[in-house]
Structure formats: C-alpha cells, structure tokens
Write a structure and sequence with these properties.
9 helices; mainly alpha; single chain
C-alpha cells in the first residue's frame, strides 16, 4: 500500500514511543492503525505494545493506546488486554491512565 513507506520511516531508527507521544506524531500513528491492514501494522503494533507503559504516561500516547483498543484484533488484542490488566493499579492513579481504562472497558 502507499502508506507502507510511512510505517517504515516511523520504525527506522526512531524510538516509536517518542513519535506516538508527540502532539502530531500520535495522530499519524493513530491513522496508520485505523486505516492500514492489520498485517501492514503488525510490527508497528508489536513495538507499541512493548512500550505500553511509556504510552500511558502523561503525553499524547494515550490516544494511540485508545486507538489500539478499538482496532487491534487477535493475539495482539489479547496481549493488549493483558497489559491493561497488569497495569491497572498504575493506570488508575493518573488521568491518562483512567482514560485508557475507560476505553478498555467500552
């Protein structure tokens, strides 16, 4: 697809959580998750899940996590649910985390 080059650029040499937590970068990552085929963004989502704790801290990463909660399927969705469950006590103590928990419960 024509968006594959964007995925490659974001994942090449940049810490993905810094892009996902950026005011404008988070919108790009959200759009990729929403509009690309699951197989196109599989590696991107895997890296985002590896950085789950970073994304739920103050910043714009929570918007990416919320988008993942709406669009990720299969094994990655199971892993995402497990991460939310593992971090529920941390998430409950700050506003971004509470928003993520709310999205997870929808």
């Amino acid at each position: 697809s024509s968006l594959q080059f964007i995925i490659a650029e974001i994942m090449d040499g940049v810490k993905l959580s810094s892009v996902a937590r950026h005011k404008y970068g988070c919108r790009i990552v959200q759009s990729l998750v929403e509009h690309c085929l699951p197989e196109q963004v599989h590696d991107l989502v895997s890296h985002l899940l590896d950085e789950f704790s970073e994304l739920t801290k103050p910043g714009f990463g929570r918007f990416v996590v919320e988008k993942l909660l709406r669009h990720v399927v299969g094994k990655q969705r199971i892993r995402l649910n497990e991460l939310v469950e593992q971090h529920v006590s941390e998430l409950a103590f700050h506003q971004n985390g509470c928003t993520v928990l709310s999205a997870a419960l929808e």
